[in-house]
Amino acid sequence: MELAGAITIFLGIYLSCLLVISTWRKHSRYKNLPPGPTPLPLIGNFLQIKMGDTLKSLERLRDQYGPVFTVYFGSKPIVVLCGHEAVKEALVDQAEEFSGRGAMPTVEKNFQGHGVVFANGERWRQLRRFSLTVLRNFGMGKRSIEERIREEAQYLLEAFRNTKAEPFDPTYFLSRAVSNVICSIVFGNRFDYEDKEFLSLLQMMNESFREISTPWSQFYDMYSSFLKYFPGPHTKIYHILEDMRKFIAKRVKQNQATLDSSSPRDFIDCFLIQMEKEKKNPSSEFNTTNLVLTTLNLFFAGTETVSSTLRYGFLFLMKYPEVEEKVHREIDHVIGRHRVPASEDRMKMPYTDAVIHEIQRLTDIVPLGVPHTVIRDTQFRGYTLPKGTNVFPLLGSVLRDTKYFSSPEEFNPGHFLDENGRFKKNEAFVPFSSGRRVCLGEGLARMELFLFLTTILQRFALQPLVAPKDIDVSPRMSGFGNVPPTYQLCLVPR
Ligand code: HEM
């Protein structure tokens, strides 16, 4: 009897809350958001979103509510954009309004709105403009960085040769090579592959990419305002990023002690010089916090994305050996077996170019996109998004948009080839996102993917340890990022 009474009281309170919330929503500034499933008090739309499978859960809601809808993470509304048209209309056609960076609770405590990736407003504008200029001055998109990648690819070949065609896990082979390219820009040097500190930084990065993609992290993103007061797996990410921050802060101190303003050696030097130039400007964002955290952003974003894509790429090529075979043939035909590949070869290699695009499309490294926010009250498709509303542009839904890809779930380089075998652009190819926040390292990443992949395949054939049909290409984890499965392979000299 007592239990029945308690349940009745609980239900009564709960239903009253529901009523209050629905009345509040009708009259609040959120009254004209896109439609979506009714949120429950406190838990929001928790019941509709399967942790660990967020993209699929959100795509299911699209079937019910259309390509633009609202879900509640706890009590926070998130406007979700699905498919190429909706994402383009927001990020490109209304670029300015949608250019804000949305909340990412899992890393909030580490960055607190600093560093180019998480900054907003004037801070973001200054850091983005400066980072792009320095990356270009250090050769992004130019010959000098191409030389650096080609040189690094030779170190990588040497390391691969030493595996003597025995089975190995390629994870840290690839991340050491890829990371050394961005390290040359931000720290002014590459690291020896045996360097213990370097390897430990790469392990931290790999681990934090995995950690921010776990079901727990997605759960934390929903209920951080409550969970942040308690211990839990989210504190692990905080500590890993904090260790990386300390490493960079140490490098900044070393640069400061040896700085020669007339000859900057790297990104850190350039930033220090800019800090000095602007020290009397009260609205300057050039300070040590932004220096350390922007460097961390570049180091992280410049390593984990490209190396995970290459690691996934190997797996696709082993699953579809006929595709690898055609890439081998194109390399032999255009570059030959001896000359080191150059980025201008890409124009003559439509098949390889298409394969790299298809690898990126299915790797779908950031399936939910990095969260955005609207920087002012914004009218979108007849709805009103109040300033500060979080927006998820689901890049994964664009990369698999059935209107733009004939067989979206299949690995098919034909998605990027015309009937004459020429490379064909596809406007829904958006792994780097689009609009004002488009990936700052796109040019560098594209050059690295082409040069590393062709250099490796010029010299080696990939050999899986299981039959191609048994290779499972589903991600090991899918959350903020799609984490590629762990596997071993043999590299057999050609
Ligand atoms: C395969 C490689 C890569 C992929 C798929 C990728 C993808 C992305 C995506 C989806 C975003 C979010 C854009 C948005 O907010 O809508 C982003 C932002 C960013 N990426 Fe990349 N990225 C890659 C490589 C790199 C590299 C090599 C660098 C280093 C130079 C880099 C630096 C950044 C930075 C600094 C941002 C933040 C831009 C901003 O907020 O203004 N990325 N990237």
TrEMBL record:
Q: What is any Pfam family matched here? A: p450
> Which residues does heme bind?
C439
Q: Tell me a GO biological process for this protein.
A: xenobiotic metabolic process
Keywords on record:
Endoplasmic reticulum, Heme, Iron, Membrane, Metal-binding, Microsome, Monooxygenase, Oxidoreductase, Transmembrane, Transmembrane helix
Which SUPFAM superfamilies does this one have? Answer: Cytochrome P450
Task: Give GO terms: molecular function aspect only.
Answer: arachidonate epoxygenase activity; heme binding; iron ion binding; oxidoreductase activity, acting on paired donors, with incorporation or reduction of molecular oxygen, reduced flavin or flavoprotein as one donor, and incorporation of one atom of oxygen
Cofactor requirement? heme
Question: Any stretches that span the bilayer, and where are they?
Answer: 6-24
Subcellular localization is given as: Endoplasmic reticulum membrane; Microsome membrane
Q: What cellular component GO annotations does this protein have? A: endoplasmic reticulum membrane
Principal cellular location given in the protein's record? endoplasmic reticulum
**What is the catalytic activity of this protein?**
an organic molecule + reduced [NADPH--hemoprotein reductase] + O2 = an alcohol + oxidized [NADPH--hemoprotein reductase] + H2O + H(+)
List, alphabetically, the InterPro entries matched.
Answer: Cyt_P450, Cyt_P450_CS, Cyt_P450_E_grp-I, Cyt_P450_E_grp-I_CYP2A-like, Cyt_P450_sf, Cytochrome_P450_fam2
What family name appears in the similarity comment? Answer: Belongs to the cytochrome P450 family.
What function is annotated for this protein? Cytochromes P450 are a group of heme-thiolate monooxygenases. In liver microsomes, this enzyme is involved in an NADPH-dependent electron transport pathway. It oxidizes a variety of structurally unrelated compounds, including steroids, fatty acids, and xenobiotics.
Return the protein name.
Cytochrome P450 2G1-like
